[in-house]
Design brief:
Number of strands: 0
Largest sheet: none
Structural class: mainly alpha
Distance between the termini: 31 Å
Radius of gyration: 19 Å
Shape: globular
Order of helices and strands: HHHHHHHHHHHHHHH
Amino acid sequence: MIALVGLHGFRPLVANSSAESLHPDRTAGLWQDAVMDTSSTRPIEASSVAAFVGCTLIWGSTFLFIRIGHDSLPPMWAAALRLSIAAAILFAILAVRRERLPGGAARTAAVGFGLLQFGVNFPLLYWGELAVPSGLTAVIFATIPVSGALLAAAFGVERLSPLRLIGGLVSLAGIAVVFSSELRGAGILPMLAVFGATIAAVLGSLVLKSGPRQSPIAANAVGALVGAVVCIALSVSCGESRTLPGTTTAWLSVLYLAIAGSVGAFVLWAWLVNRWEVSRVSFMAVLTPLIALSLGALVRHERLGPLTLLGAAIVLAGVLLGLGLVKGPRGATTR
C-alpha cells in the first residue's frame, strides 16, 4: 500500500543545495559518479550507456549464481542472506562517507522500493525458479519493457512512447525465438510467481522514480534492509532451514550476488533511474538472458544455434528502437 500510494503522491524533485553538499567529489570513476550524481534527466550520454551496460553484464551473470545457490540453500533464506550482506555493506559505505539516511518522502520511496523490489520480487523469483525452466523464466521477464511502459503511463510517471512499446514487443519476440526449444510447461503457480516478480520489479522502479532524488547508496541500503527483513520473515514462516552456506561454492554464490548483484549493479541502476525513464531502463530485462547465453558459450563452450543467433538479432533491434538509438518512422525517436 505504501508503495502504490507513493506513485500518486510523489513528484520528482530537482537536486537542491543540501543534496549537492552530500556529493562534493565528482571526479572519480563511473561507480563513484553513479553514487553521487543527482542531476536532472538528460539525453543519452556515454556515462548512462556505460551504467546500462554494466548493470546488464552483472545481472546477466547472476542467473548462474542464483542456480548455484539453489543447490545448497532454501530460496527465501538465500535471498535473505544476500540482502543482509548487501545492506551491511551499503550502511558501512554510508558511514564511511558520512552520508545521512533519506528522510520524509525520500525515505518512504526507499522503503516502498525495497518492499517491492527486494521483499516481493526476490522471493517470488527465487521460489518460482525452482520449478520454471530458465528459458521460460527469460521469456516471462522479457515482458518487463512492455509492462514497464504501460504501468509507467498508467500511474502518470511517464508518457507512453509507442516506439518504446514496439521495441519491447520486438524484443519479447526475439527472446521467445531464442528460447523456443525450452518453452516447456511448468506449474501455474510457479509461472504466476515469476510473472508477479516482474510486476513487483517494475512497480519498485516506479516508486523510486516517483520519489525525490536521493543517493543511490542510501536508497539501496534502506531497500536492502527492508527486503532482508521480509525475506527472513518468509523463511521463518515457510519453515526453511536457516543455516549458513556449508561450502566454498555456496559462499561464493551468496557473496557474488550480494556484492556484485545487489551493491554494485543496483547502485548503478538506481542512479540510471534518476536519469532515464523507467521504461527505457527496463530493456535490461531482455539483454540479461543474452549475456547469460554468451557466458555459457565462452565459459562452458555451449553451442549457440541458428535460432539463438536470429533471436538475439531481433532482441538487439528491439532494444535499439526502445532506447532511442535508432530512428523510427518519419525520423521519430523514443526520446
